[in-house]
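Blinded run. Sample ID left blank on purpose so nobody reads anything into the name before looking at the predicted structure. Input follows.
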Amino acid sequence: MKLSKGYKQLVAEAEALVTSLTPAEVDARLGQSGVLLVDLRDVREVKREGKIPGSLHVPRGMLEFWIDPDSPYYRSEFDNVQAIILYCNKGWRSALAAQSLMAMGLDSVAHMQGGMERWQLDIGRLEHL
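Blinded prediction complete.
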């Protein structure tokens, strides 16, 4: 199977379009009214490594369904959200997911550069399940 575009190019294209925040910038926004931090990692990653305190775990495959009020899977956690910050393990899934939410019409969406790996190096504060 020959691909005309690999994941690295997809991620680079997404990162050129979406707002990227450092862990310090994300940390500064935690707790602000209307800001929701969303953890896109697999449930096994969250159980193994913990999550950023105050973040909502949304499996990457369910994001578009949980955020759309017309979806039967819509989650009320998104009712009063004004800004969304996404993160994953390395920042790849979150960049692609941010691009997807922008395609859905959201303009106040960002992702965290370097993901959980960079958060652990820069900030280190975690919540364990």
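Unblinding after everyone has recorded impressions. The chain has a mean pLDDT of 96.
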